[in-house]
Structures are given as structure tokens and as C-alpha cells.
Design goal:
The protein has 161 residues and is an alpha+beta fold. The protein has 5 helices and 5 strands; from the N terminus they run ββαβββαααα. The longest helix is centred in the middle third of the chain and has 16 residues. InterPro entries: 2Fe-2S-bd, 2Fe-2S-bd_dom_sf, 2Fe-2S_ferredoxin-like_sf, 2Fe-2S_ferredoxin-type, 2Fe2S_fd_BS, Aldehyde_Oxdr_Iron-Sulfur, Beta-grasp_dom_sf.
């Protein structure tokens, strides 16, 4: 067993965990933070996306012990204009992927603001324009079974604009 201490949504937490427990399972099963969803449990769908020290992380792929001493923000700790934009732009349907989509969008907007390029960025020497193609590329790690992609892109573009 390992003692894992994290700041989750602004609160100091600790848990005694087996070293092979994923961050997602630590959050959901040991800390009672159920916003991140277990979709594929393989890192392919993005439903479990959280922010660790402000960066996007697919929480099913990392071990909780890797995040000892770190700041973890889940949808429960997010207060961002993109949440209201998702509602205004119909960026959700069933809602299962929405916590991960929103956490990813918040992280993606911060990455873009910092000038980080993506695979869709034509010129890496300048801050890329946040076009629809750029948003879609940057959000490509988050899948929506309902197909609410147009609303998701519109919500992110609204906040970025």
C-alpha cells in the first residue's frame, strides 16, 4: 500500500492505495469524486479527462501514485465560461462525455493561449489561429457517442473568440 496525497478540487486529500490503482479509480472509488467517467478504460475516449497542475490528463492511464503531491481538478472543481457555452450551443446530449470534454476544453484553451502548436497548426512560429480545424484537432482525444461535436466546437469557439 502507498499513501497518496493530492489536492483535489482545492481540497487536500490522501488515500492508502495499491500502487497499481489508476488515478481515475482513486478519484471515483476511493475519494468519491465521480465527475470523471470510466468510458473505455484504455485512454481512447477521453471521458475521464481531468486537469493535473492545469494540464489535460486521461486519468485512466496514469497510476494515482504518479500524481502524489499534485493539484488535480475534475469537473466538480471547474468554474469556466466554457461550461455555460456548452449549454448555449447544445454541446452535450446524454452528458456522459461532458465532464471530460469540458476539462479538455479548459486545458486546450490554456495550451492555445500559451502558444502551443497542434498537429493542425500550419506555422509553429506564431500563435495558431483557433479555427474550427484547430479546435477539432486539439479536442480529437475526446469522443462523443451522441455526435455533439458541432455544438462542442461552437462552444469552444465562442469562448475563445
Amino acid at each position: 500500500m502507498a499513501t497518496v496525497r493530492m489536492r483535489v478540487n482545492g481540497a487536500e486529500t490522501s488515500a492508502e492505495l495499491e500502487p497499481r490503482v489508476s488515478l481515475l479509480d482513486a478519484l471515483r472509488e476511493h475519494l468519491g469524486v465521480t465527475g470523471p467517467k470510466k468510458g473505455c478504460d484504455q485512454g481512447a475516449c477521453g471521458a475521464c479527462t481531468v486537469l493535473v497542475d492545469g494540464r489535460r490528463v486521461v486519468s485512466c492511464l496514469g497510476l494515482a501514485v504518479q500524481y502524489d503531491g499534485r493539484e488535480v481538478t475534475t469537473i466538480e472543481g471547474v468554474d469556466h465560461p466554457v461550461q455555460r457555452a456548452f449549454v448555449r450551443n447544445d454541446g452535450l446530449q446524454c452528458g456522459y462525455c461532458t465532464p471530460g470534454q469540458i476539462c479538455s476544453a479548459v486545458g486546450m484553451l490554456a495550451e492555445h493561449a500559451a502558444g502551443e502548436p497542434s498537429a493542425a497548426t500550419e506555422r509553429v512560429t506564431s500563435r495558431p489561429t483557433l479555427t474550427e480545424a484547430e479546435i477539432r484537432e486539439r479536442m480529437s482525444g475526446n469522443l462523443c457517442r451522441c455526435g455533439a461535436y458541432n455544438g462542442i466546437v461552437a462552444a469552444i469557439a465562442e469562448v475563445a473568440g
